Please model this.
Amino acid sequence: METLTTRRLNRATLARQMLLARDRTDVVTAVERLGGMQAQEARHPFTGLWTRLEGFRREDMHRALHDRLLVRGTMMRATLHLMSAADYAAFRLTLGPALAPAATGRGDLFAGVDLDRLLPVAHALLRERPRDFTMLRDLLQAEFPEAGDRGLGYAVRTQLPLVMVPTEDRWAFPRTADFAPADVWLGVELSRKPVEELVLRYLAAFGPASAADAQTWSGIKGLRAVLDGLRPGLRVFRDERGRELFDLPDAPRPDEDVPAPARFLPDFDNLVLAHADRTRLVAEEHRGRLTTKNLRVRATFLWDGSVCGTWQVERRRDTAVLRMTPFEPLPGDAVSGLTEEAGALLRFAEPDAATMDVRIERP
Model:
C-alpha cells in the first residue's frame, strides 16, 4: 500500500480546492467542486471564490443566488453553507440524522418543543411569505406558549430545510435575512441521496482522507463502514503515521514539489475545517491559534501550501488596512508574494476605499 507524505497530501487537497492555480469555471460548478462553502457570514464565500477563481466578480455570485442556482442554508455540522441548489436538494435530507441532535441535545432550551407539531406550522408560516427569525419566533411563541422562543427558533432553523432569501445587499444578504422553505424556494421536492454519494463528493473535494476526516466534515458518524463498503471502487493509501486513507481513483494527487502560491482564505473556510487531522495544512502547534475563544474560525493565509498566519481587514472611513499576523517570521520571498496578493484582495473587498495598506505584524 502506497504511503503519501504530508506534503503530498497537502498538494492533493490544494489541487481539489483550486488553490494551486485559479480556475476558470463558473461559480455554481466551483461551489459544487469545493463540496460547498461554509457561510456563517454572507461575505465569506465571496472572498473564498475570489481566491480560487480567475476573474471572479461579485455580480456572478449575486446572479447565481437570485437565479436560485446557489442557496445559503444549514448543512454540514449544522452550520450555514453556500451550496448549489442541486446539491442542497440532493443532500439536505441525507444530513438529517447528523442534524437531529441539534434539536435534542441542549437540555432546557427545547423544553416543551414538539417537532411533529412545530415543523408543519413553521413551514406554513414561511410558505405564506419569507420571514426573518425575529418575526418567526414571535409567531411560533404565540402558537406554542408552552415552549421558549429560542428553542422554537433553533429547532426550526436546524430541523426544517430552509434557505436564506438573497437581496441586493453588497454581500447578497442583509445581517438579518428572511428565510423560505427550501422546497418552495427551489420548486422541487427534496430527495435523500445515499450517504455513500455524499462521502464520494467529500473525497473529490478533500481527499485522500480517513473515515475520521469525513465524519469531521459531515457531522455524520459511522462512516468507516460506509468507506469499507466503497473500498472496491477506491484507491487506498496510508499516511506517514500509518493511518488508512481513501480516495477516488482518478482524483489529482500532484507531486509534492508542485509550487503553491500565496493565498488568502476567509473566516470559517472549509479548507481548515474539513479534516480531523489537519497537519497536511497547518502545524499542530499552530492549530489552536485558528479559533477564537467564542469559536470563530479566523481568516488565514497560505504560503507554500501551509497555513502560516491569520489576517483581517480594518476599515476606518476611507482607509482600508489588511493586517497579517504570521505564526513565525516569514522568509523574504513570502513577504513580497503575500503583500502582492493581499493588495489584490483589498482592491476586491474594499473597492471604494481611497487609501489601502498592507501590514505584517510581528509574530
Remarks:
- Residues 282-360 form a domain with the GMP Synthetase; Chain A, domain 3 fold (CATH 3.30.300).
